[in-house]
Design goal:
Elements (H helix, E strand, L loop, with lengths): L9 E5 L3 H10 L5 E6 L3 E3 L4 H5 L9 E3 H5 L5 E5 L2 E5 L4 E4 L2 E4 L2 E4 L3 E3 L5 H6 L6 H20 L3 H8 E5 L3 H16 L1 H4 L9 E5 L11 H13 L3 E3 L4 E4 L3 E4 L4 E3 L2 E4 L3 E3 L17 E3 L11 E3 L4 E3 L12 H19 L14 E6 L2 E5 L4 E3 L1 H14 L3 H17 L13 H6 L1
Parallel strand pairs: 1-2, 1-9, 2-5, 9-20, 11-12, 11-17, 12-13, 19-21
Antiparallel strand pairs: 3-4, 6-7, 7-8, 10-18, 14-15, 15-16, 22-23, 23-24
Helix pairs in contact: 1-10, 5-6
Bound molecules: flavin-adenine dinucleotide.
Flavin-adenine dinucleotide binds next to helix 1, strand 2, helix 2, helix 7 and helix 10.
Length: 429
């Protein structure tokens, strides 16, 4: 890997997401050698992925080069590498570019889509965890309308214009709102020869309310906002299968659609080599103690989505959200400094700063620990918070300018099929 050993202890971080970057910043002034490994050379701001899928933002504006984040830190190395396996006994990670020894290892590999073992759903549905997936979805949505314009088969046309989103967490809700706005504001202008009023957006939730992690008021309001926008919200309905054409459910409701988006579950992106019931939970997250440390391997830590700290309030770990990841990264940086100075580590405590989701233009719901609000003000708060947490001044400027432009013009200019997506290619790969 072309990385020389220095006299400082080597800390290897796997993953340059919210947790990994937060840890790296905290380690920047310490006397350690840090090697950050990621399969992508950029940090991906996942909360805005749905805007890439729906042509509201260019992918570049939510990605940031990891090397640029680290450029001012001495003793830091970045390698573009996929970690294939961890060998805790050998204190090494095996990657697609070689093997690397560590003194301390921090696994910050995030999460991946959970299909709960359903291979057919996995093969035929669309996911939205990465920028390439968001671009695939953008292409598919636009390709569907191009095809709908050409077909004379009414059922096929309807299926091409139907969108089924499974899972009504923030991702599903935000995507449904954005698709509804496209249907209302953009499709009639782009496809005057197509009756785009027939396009249907279905949001399916197995439980009895949407945004179930948020307050009841937020759920009710978000549902009302979605219904205003013309989204069909289905509750207490569980999707059982999708074969690329028909979505079946646990009732007699079926949907004919060319596009099913699976936003119904995530699991930890654990890496081969960390295994066993006492180390890995049922949701594939790595079980760690309050110092983010693995039980059997005191020099290995996990933070962020992949880590599961079990507490009374959160028996299955903290929510897979940006704030727990950022806070754990920061705390572990502080703890590693203490560990290296032979001082006791401090347990991680999560400061819940709340949750929010936008449903569309002027519509959002915000739950702060002591204050809950919905509507236009919530929407401005949502925008401000997302701009604030985006990495890089240029990205913030571009996103801000895009949002102002889209707001004034009722537009989403990035509706481009740059890299055509064909479903058969996905199942072949
Ligand atoms: C569509 C979407 C919307 C979301 N919206 C919100 C929101 O509004 N608010 C909120 O708080 N949270 C939101 N989240 C969740 C939030 O993005 C995650 O909780 C957060 O990214 C977790 O940070 P992390 O550092 O643990 O993982 P990530 O940010 O996912 O980073 C993991 C990194 O590890 C790398 N990696 C993984 N495996 C390997 C490997 N084997 N080798 C090398 N590199 C590897 C990945 O490339 C990635 O860069 C959203 C997530 C998605 C997908």
């Amino acid at each position: 890997m072309n990385i020389n050993r220095t006299s400082n202890p080597r800390i290897v971080i796997v993953g340059g997401g919210f947790a990994g970057v937060s840890l790296a910043k905290q380690l920047s002034k310490q006397e350690v050698q840090v090697v950050l490994l990621d399969q992508h050379n950029y940090h991906n701001f996942q909360p805005l992925l749905y805007q890439v899928s729906t042509g509201g933002l260019e992918p570049d504006s939510i990605a940031y080069p990891i090397r640029k984040i680290l450029k001012d830190y001495d003793n830091f190395q970045f390698r573009l590498a996929k970690v294939l396996e961890i060998s805790p006994e050998q204190n090494s990670v095996i990657t697609d570019i070689g093997t690397l020894k560590f003194d301390y290892l921090v696994i910050a590999s995030g999460s991946e889509t959970n299909y709960f073992g359903n291979k057919s759903i996995e093969a035929h549905s669309m996911a939205m965890k990465t920028i390439p997936q968001a671009l695939d979805l953008r292409s598919l949505i636009l390709e569907n309308f191009e095809e709908a314009l050409l077909t004379t088969d009414l059922d096929e046309r309807n299926a091409l214009m139907n969108f089924v989103i499974v899972g009504a967490g923030p991702t599903g809700v935000e995507l449904a709102g954005a698709l509804a706005e496209i249907k209302k504001g953009i499709l009639p202008k782009d496809y005057p020869d197509l009756d785009t009023r027939l396009a249907q957006i279905h949001l399916v939730q197995s439980g009895n309310r949407i945004l179930k992690e948020m307050s009841e008021k937020a759920s009710e309001k978000a549902e009302a906002f979605l219904e205003d926008l013309g989204v069909n919200v289905w509750k207490n309905l569980r999707v059982s299968n999708y074969d690329g054409k028909i979505v079946t459910t646990n009732s007699d409701v079926v949907f004919e659609t060319a596009t099913m988006i699976w936003a119904a579950g995530v699991k930890g992106a654990n890496i081969k080599g960390i295994a066993g019931e006492d180390l890995v939970s049922r949701s594939n997250r790595i079980i760690v103690n309050e110092f983010n440390q693995l039980k059997t391997y005191p020099n290995i830590f996990a933070i962020g989505d992949v880590a599961q700290i079990e507490t009374e309030a959160h028996p299955y770990g903290y929510p897979m959200m940006a704030q727990p990841a950022i806070q754990q990264g920061k705390q572990l940086g502080y703890n590693l400094e203490r560990l290296l100075a032979n001082q006791p580590m401090q347990p991680f405590t999560y400061k819940d700063k709340g949750a929010m989701a936008t449903v569309g233009r002027n519509k959002a719901v915000v739950d702060m620990p002591n204050f809950k609000f919905q509507g236009v003000f919530a929407w401005f708060v949502w925008m401000f918070v997302h701009l604030f947490f985006l990495i890089g001044f240029r990205n913030r400027m571009i996103v801000f300018v895009n949002w102002v432009y889209n707001y004034i013009r009722f537009d989403r200019e990035a509706r481009l099929i740059i890299r055509p997506f064909k479903k058969k290619l996905k199942s072949d790969s």
